[in-house]
Amino acid sequence: MSKSIIERTAQNEITLSTTENISFKEKIDIANLPQHVAIIMDGNGRWAKAQGKHRIFGHKNGVKAVREVTEGCAELGVKYLTLYAFSTENWNRPKMEVSALMELLFLTIGKEIKTLQKNNIRLNVIGHIHTLPESNRKALTEVMEATKNNTRMVLTLALSYGSREEISEATRQIAIDYKDGKITLDEINQHLISTQLYTKDMPDPELMIRTSGEHRISNFLLWQVAYTELYFTEKFWPEFEKNDLYKAILDFQQRERRFGMTSEQINQPLTNN
Q1: Is there a catalytic annotation at residue 90?
Q2: Could you give the number of structural domains in the chain?
Q3: Measuring CA to CA, which residue among 157, 139, 231, 137 is closest to residue 198?
Q4: pLDDT tens column, 23-82
Q5: CATH number of 45's domain
Q6: What's this model's pTM, rounded to 2 decimal places?
Q7: 12, 21, 32, 42: which is the annotated catalytic residue?
Q8: Structure confidence at residue 2 (pLDDT)
Q9: For residue range 191-245, what is the model confidence (pLDDT) as tens digits?
Q10: Residue 49's domain spans which residues?
């Protein structure tokens, strides 16, 4: 019986941990990088609580991990990095924490523009941006405008984002276009739906990482991760460093991506007809 994703990930982490002192970056096959990496940044609050601190202390320290991962992906040559920063469900958290998160987001955006420019990274945002405070919307718009011509990598922040709502909005728009005669019934397919999503201008993620030991997707890119490799780590987000990113990518490169086919089909040598 084949092992589950969780079992394989755990086994690979045990195997890789025996060489913890070795930089995993040196082992990565640059020719086989995931083009798009998505990350569920989880565990800030629990990390802070374990140290007797308030949850916002964890969020503040999580900014360093964002910088580490962003620079790490850019240095390797990953073209797209998408970070689950704030979900639509996160609005239900205590008002004090939400307010602190919005303030932290505002301060961080202004500070990190130098990092983005230095690394030739373009900032992108997906989600219900209109629900963010005006100061945040203005700051995000300014940084997106300032970095719009950067070409090394696209950093996408999912803010006030929920995948079910994203799919609902796409479906609603397709229904309107059909009603208005802009499309026919036969034109409604997977490709059309993909073109109506927030992520229409980027490829689907090939690797999704979740920190803190949780094993769920939490309403993040549900349509887009149909064939994405999932990687789970016990580390809390503030503890996540470049070498942890490299370990996840190395794990990804050890997997066989079959897309519904058999191993024999995948490994069959090409023949000239």
Answers
A1: yes
A2: 1
A3: 157
A4: 899 999 999 999 999 999 999 999 999 999 999 999 999 999 999 999 999 999 999 999
A5: 3.40.1180.10
A6: 0.87
A7: 42
A8: 46
A9: 999 999 999 999 999 999 999 999 999 999 999 999 999 999 999 999 999 999 9
A10: 33-162+204-255
Residue 37 resides in a domain: yes
Q: Which amino acid is residue 90, in one-letter code?
A: N
Q: Is there a catalytic annotation at residue 32? A: no
Contacts of 241 (CB under 8 A, 6+ apart): 65, 68
Q: Which residues pair with 121 in a beta bridge?
A: 153
In a domain, 19, yes or no: no
* CB-based contact 222:4 (threshold 8 Å): no
Percent of the chain with pLDDT over 70: 86
Residue closest to 74 by CA, chosen among 63, 86, 66: 66
Burial of 163 (0-12, 13-18, 19+ CB in 10 A): buried
Q: Is the sign of the CA dihedral 62, 64, 68, 70 positive or negative?
A: positive
Catalytic residue, chosen from 90, 150, 219, 243, is: 90
The side-by-side arrangement of strands in the sheet containing 80-87 is: 121-126, 153-161, 80-87, 36-40, 207-210, 229-232
